[in-house]
Each structure stands twice: as structure tokens, then as C-alpha cells.
Amino acid sequence: MGALNMIQLPSLHLATFSSFISPSFSQSSLKTLTPTRRSITRSSSLKSFLDLTPEYKPQSLNIDLERHDFTGGSPDYDAVIIGCGPSGLRLASLASKHGLRICCLDPSPLLLWPNNYGVWVDEFEAMNLTDTLDKVWPSATVIINDQKSKHLDRPYGRVNRNYLKSKLIQACVSNGVKFHVAKACKVEHQEFKSTVLCSDGKELNASLVIDASGFTTSFMEYENTLKRNHGYQLAHGILAEVEHHPFELDKMVLMDWRDDHLGNEPYLRARNKTTPTFLYAMPLSSGLIFLEETSLVSRPVMSYREVKQRMVARLRHLGIKVKSVVEDEKCLIPMGGPLPRLPQSVVGVGGASGLVHPSTGYMVARALGTAELMAEAMVECLGSVRMVRGKALQRKVWTSVWSGERMREREFYCFGMETLLQLGLKGTRSFFDAFFDLDPYYWHGFLSSRLSLQELALLSFSLFAHASLPSRMDIITKCPLPLARLVANLAANQAI
Ligand SMILES: Cc1cc2nc3c(=O)[nH]c(=O)nc-3n(C[C@H](O)[C@H](O)[C@H](O)COP(=O)(O)OP(=O)(O)OC[C@H]3O[C@@H](n4cnc5c(N)ncnc54)[C@H](O)[C@@H]3O)c2cc1C
Predict the structure, then answer these.
(1) Taking the model in full, what pTM does it have?
(2) For the chain, which terminal residue's Cβ has fewer other Cβ atoms within 10 angstroms, N or C?
């Protein structure tokens, strides 16, 4: 283990948590961070790791949920939350802690989450959630090219998603949250009450309906889509058993922008110059590593096949021989784009509400933090004798997600995305070279969405001043349209 800075879950956590997983998920697999998928083929006679097929067995938590009881008529809830992802469960656990009557709706509320989540440790510290990280790297690295790297003195963590989910569900159960196992199909509204129509024909009534169903929601209406276009983050990730890898165990690799692995692939190399991808790597031990070839943002979304081809070439060049693929993930995240129309009768949280960081694709820490603000707003309206209901309630809760200030800040992050879309490999390298030279207060704040509008403006000027001459020219010549759009959208948002 040596340099590994593994956060030891207290033995109580492991013992308690493992008893909540269905029996086939063993205690030893928890300890070795071995998750739920295993490849069925071994690597010896294979051309690349892509030939290793992870045998995916969806696993469920073994927790008794209190189901909504339809027999005695349908009592009204304070809120029905659609979706048991990180956003929905966090909100349910917090709102119910203050006595609100909550029902969560999901076709598989106990199914373990599939995504690998990485976060900055300070983000989780601020929410008292560091016990849900199963690995912490004291620092991170950004490899700009084969001559230059940046050392980032900011701890980074990997979320133990199974433990986080079990912790949130247990909190919900203790606070009396009810669950209904079905899909939400439609939401209908009256003046002070909404009804969720479910896939099994049942109905749930509540004062407020929250949409936590993720990016693919069908319950949100969005503002005029002509104003902003989405970019897309696309990545192929594997948690792999390897013979060895070249990365230090006490540093995670946030971005590796080297392209020398494409030397023998002129077609891929040329395309990588205009639509670059980088490697994201979380070394868990000398033989276990999470590797993800990532297109930070592209529009239209770049080819997934090509991302994987580039990854094959990169791993070969780095001498990484994959023995087995423990799990894999396709990561497609819509970034930027239109915000939900505000206010509207259903209130969104997480992926459904446009919370994803438009320049980075990160969201989980922000969503968990926003759930705290939403829970406060809900308790203020629903838990008090003031009985704030209907449109006033919806407006109040929406404001906790998207205040006018927050919306104006988002314009800057969208400008960041538009800039990155224009830059190509050379410009992207220069951009991050300058970005990570900024005062840590600024780059930490930018990546964690916690800078004020004024600070974001300062950051932009400072970044421009730090940038190399060619980079400045790049920004001036390639970004006048996004800049004009930023100014126009900021002006339009002043009215909000
Ligand atoms: C592969 C991948 C990796 C990511 N990695 C990171 C990362 O490292 N760091 C980070 O900050 N962000 C990351 N993200 C971005 C973001 O944090 C995640 O997408 C996150 O899971 C979003 O959480 P959510 O709760 O909003 O939605 P989801 O996690 O998508 O959960 C939605 C839930 O709603 C349920 N649902 C959907 N439709 C209905 C319906 N009609 N009725 C009832 N239930 C429904 C689903 O079953 C699901 O349980 C990643 C995204 C992806 C796709």
C-alpha cells in the first residue's frame, strides 16, 4: 500500500454496509474495491482491452424500504421525488430529516448506481461526506505535453458510490420516507396539488413534485433552445486489472494531454489536433486503475468508436497491459445548453435542472450541495404554519436552485465551454497551462462553481493576461461570437 492514501472506512461502515448488499456481493470484494462487473475473457490472445467483455451483473442494496400504501386511498405528500440517483436521494434524506412527508419514485430504487464519481475532497468536506470517499489522492497532475506537467496541490477523491447510496437510503428509511417502485409517466397540476401518474397506473399526490430523473428527463420544459447549444462530454472508462502502469500511486491524473501515442496513427493524430481527448486516471494500486479517455467537450458529439481507438493506442504506448476489465462505463454528459424555463410547476434538481458544470462536466458535488438549499426552501414553505403552496412554493424552491446571480454565473461557465470548443489541442494545452497557474482560489473556485460574478470576471482577465501570445490571439480570433453571446445573455439575465 505504501504511498496509497486510502481512507479506511471504519469497520462499522464496512460491516453495516455489506449487510445491505445482496448476498452475492461479498465482503472481500468491498475491501479490495472490486465492484460489480468482471470481464469474462482474459487478455493473452487479445488485440486490445476492448475485446475483454465485462460481465455486468446489476446489484441491488438489501434494505427494507417502506412502500407507499395504496390501500387506504392516496394520502398527499409534501413532495414526491422522481428518481433515486444521488440528487433525488440526497434531497429526500435532507427534507425528510426536517419532518417533511416524502415519497421517492424509481423503477429500481435499490439498484446500485453505475457511474464512477470523482470529486475534489474539499467539496465533500464542506458537506461532511468524506466518509463516502473510498480513496483520496493528496494531489493531482495535469500533463500538458511530454515536457510539461502541472502539480495540483488539491486532494481528489473517488466516491464509494455503493456506500453513498446505502447511506442516503438508510437516512431516508430512518426519516420515514416512502418508496414506490415504478416509473413516473406524467405529472398533472392543480392550484395547490400535483399528481404523478405512474407506469403501473397508480397515482401519487403531493404539494410539490421534484424531478431528479437525470439528464434524460421528460418532465422539464427548457427555455428557448436557439439561445444556447449543448456541448457533449464523451468518455470511455474502465476499471482494469493491469500488469503494471506508469502512474504514481499518490497522484491522480486529472488530464494527460500527450499525443505521442498517435505517432503511428496519422488519421487519429490529425483529428486529435482539432478534437482533442485526454486520459483521466485514478491509480488505485499498482495492479488496479481506473482509466478514462475523455473528450472534454465536443459539438457535435465526437465518435465514441474513435475515443476507444485513441484509448487503445494510448494504453499500448504507455505499456499498460489490461488483464481484465472489472467494469466499464460510457460517459455522455450534455453540457451547457438551455436552462429549465423558470419557474415551472415541476422543480428540477441534478442532471434534470441543468446543474452540470458547462466547462467540466462535473456535477455530483454541486447537486448534493444544491439539495441542501432546496431542502431548506422546502422546509420553510411546507414545514411552517405559513403554508406556502402552489406557484409561490414552486418559485421559492426554484430560486434555491437557480437564483438570478447563479444564472449569470452560469453564463461564464458556458463561455468557458464555448472557448474550449474552439481551441483544438494546441490551444487547449496553452489554456490549461495558464489556467492552473492562476491563484488556487480562482481555479478551485471555477472548477467547483463557487466564484461570484465579479470573481469570474477577474478570473477571465487574469487568465487572458497569463495566456501566451498565441493563446490570446486564439481567444481574440476564435471567440468573438461566444463573447458577444456572453455579454448579451448577461444583459438579458439582469432582468431576472
Ligand atoms: C458515466 C458518468 C460518469 C460521471 N462521472 C462524474 C464524476 O466523476 N464527477 C461528477 O461530478 N459528475 C459525474 N457525472 C455527471 C453527474 O454527476 C451524474 O450524471 C449523476 O449521476 C447525475 O445525478 P442525478 O441524480 O441528477 O441523476 P442520475 O444519476 O441519472 O439518476 C436518475 C435516477 O432517476 C431514475 N429515473 C429516470 N427516469 C425516471 C422516471 N421516469 N421515473 C422514475 N425514476 C426515473 C433513474 O432510474 C435514476 O435512478 C458522470 C456522469 C456519467 C454519465
Answers:
(1) 0.90
(2) N
